[in-house]
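Example record for the data management plan.
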Amino acid sequence: MSTQLAIAKAGKISSEMKEVAESEKTTPESIREKISEGKVVITKNIQHEIKPLGVGAGLRTKVNANIGSSMDDASLQKELEKLDVAVRAGADAIMDLSTGGNINAIRKAIIKKSKVPVGTVPIYQIACENIINKRSLMEMTGEDMFEIIEQHGREGVDFITVHCGVIQESVKRLDDEGRLLNIVSRGGSMLAKWMKYHKEENPLYVQFDRLLEIARECDMTLSLGDGLRPGCLSDATDRAQVQETIILGELAQRAKKADVQVMIEGPGHMPMDQIAANIVLQKRLCHDAPFYVLGPLVTDIAPGYDHITSAIGGAIAAMAGADFLCYVTPSEHLRLPELNDIKEGVIAAKIAAHAADIAIGIPGAIKKDNYMAEMRKKLDWEKQFSTALDPEKAKMLKKSKQTSEDDTCTMCASLCSIKIGNEL
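Corresponding structural encoding:
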């Protein structure tokens, strides 16, 4: 089976490349060239019947929504409802991070129903199965990891997060420098603890070639995870984070030679003045591989509003060159997100992505904004609603207050500047 990367390196154009080119308003040859250079990936497992999604340089900034159960809140039906809400709100991809209930059944149902790419973090399932079977997490083996990864690939998972850069060298740098909040990645903390307990190297790093074989078989994109990402502002851009990025850049080169598509994951929590520099650093160290960022969150004191802190950082990151924004919901750090949290998180990330696309001149990005301005000038409320990122909320807010004049809103009423201007 040829991967999209193998096809591109051979100078050929696949049907998926043509579809991505059409949706991105560019040429198939441009997509092919960027895939061959490792600057763009198409996240589509050969087992998953979805519209291919292009992520990377020169393309529209994409948004991912995390869903998934927990040990305290597990319902297959609820996860399918979250999938619907996320996609309706505009998510380009979703990740199933389930850690409770029947994890296999939830994942299979999500893959079957989803029309957008689905990602997972396979190590979560291993940890949960150990707990269910009353085994210590430290009893996890390298073989367990690869068996689960193979299973996810066979079932049609389009991209997986694998923490291959959490190795003894990078963890030692974290220990030597010290951190205010230590390791905040679940996968990163599990692997760091496992390595310390067994006094062995990370199997995902040692057997990286085996991981490449699994991914190549089904053209599953590897999202090389930032297991040592900063979890608070004071830990941003420290030696551990940078060392892990260096390692991920080296692994990305190996993946490219093996015809496996790769994204790089990034921070995390970070002051605004460090975001652009971090994007430049990642792009240089990882040879312009697509960059997938969580946020970044630009302050640590806004629980309940972290979709906003994330959107601020996401807009800066995307304008600086990040390609894929992982949303953050208002319930981040507080609870498993509910349906409205999912919607608000996606909309906030979409705002950040769209604002950045306009700033960097993505073809057609400003078109809807210009149309909205035209409809505001015409006082055409229905078309304003339909153009909005969240039509339901816009319509609800407008109609929640009775107006004295049908073509105005209660903000200005008869003093509406647009109406006065039109009368001129």
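Summary line stored alongside the record: Residues 339-360 form the longest helix (22 residues).
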